[in-house]
Amino acid sequence: MYQAPRGTSDILPQEQAYWRYLEQKTANICQLYGYERIDAPAFEDTRLFSRSVGEGTDIVEKEMYTFEDRGGNKITLRPEGTAPVCRAYVEHGMHNLAQPVKLYYLASIFRYERPQAGRFRQHHQFGYEAIGDDDPALDAEVIDMAWQFFRSLNLRHLSLNLNSIGCKTCRPEYLIALKDYYADYIDDLCADCKTRLARNPLRLLDCKKRSCQPISDSAPRSIDYLCPQCAEHFKQLQRYLGLLELPFEVNHRLVRGLDYYTRTVFEIQPETERAQSTLGGGGRYDGLIEELGGKPTPAIGFAVGIERIISNLKKYNVPVPALPRAQVFIAYVGDEVKDEAIKLASRLRQAGIGVIEAIGSKSLKAQLRQANTIGVQHTVIIGDQELKTATVILRDMTNAQQEAVPLTRLEERLR
Q1: Is the pTM of this model over 0.70?
Q2: Would you say 404 and 391 are in contact if contact means Cβ atoms under 8 Å apart?
């Protein structure tokens, strides 16, 4: 029997209320902060991700779905959302628009990784990007928007972790200090971290292996190596977050998992859980647009997994509104009445009333049982007698009370 591929899942009808609820919430928060929606292709030129995300990252080395198309081009299914937005910014000349350009997306993300709670090989992401300004006040606004988004979902007891990882001016000195420190622990590192030490030392701080975490806890701190400009930027960001009354904690191990980040990085997670349960995160990427062929352009963004949000809504019993559904069932008695039932269903739908009509040749008892199972509020019953008198029987399914209603007044009565 065929099954969904490992690491993917079907979004069944009973789950759709969560997805529609989140779609509306994302649109609401983006409207409040002035973001407009953008939809990029599900696959891109592989070089877009290897160049932006970074050759030494787990995403590029282990997790990308890459293939050669029939034209001989190397194509990769989108493993993250920022690089395609930045590619679109450059390709469509958005630098000519008023800056910063504020864009958001809802997109499928593809990563070949071990499926576990909150992690899927195909998952869905809400993200937003503010491109074109390096003011730390913009960083504070992006972080505030993420915080207010979670509050709008009634998710509470969250923690905000913050760090600055510097820029291309000050980071080289920090990386030297980091390498020197980890060189004393090389025999204690996991296999991945031994590779990171040589190729991508900043990723050492992001290792989730328990054996490596005590080592990273005492590692040199990036904020101690910031150049004057980065230090001032981080200082002002913290001041703005104070003005917004956002509680935060500086986390010296926070680096995020992508090479394009500069200066500000942040994550939001439940207070009682650790990094594997991070709800969402982001940061500044001031060099990415230039790396992709555009002019030097500062930018900052945020992203969150939809599946992980839904998991937390369920975990904390946060109610979501039910989706609108048909509230009327049409039952008929006798095949000769079927034509009239079909016409009546069409008439009610055109009047904006949701209808489910009986199909097949079930008995009236079976049809009413079906209406109960579906959970409609009313059933309209038509038989030979009703056809003669131009009426219908309107049955209240909550109390089984029935009344005769003229056909000409049925829409009014149902409303």
Answers
A1: yes
A2: yes
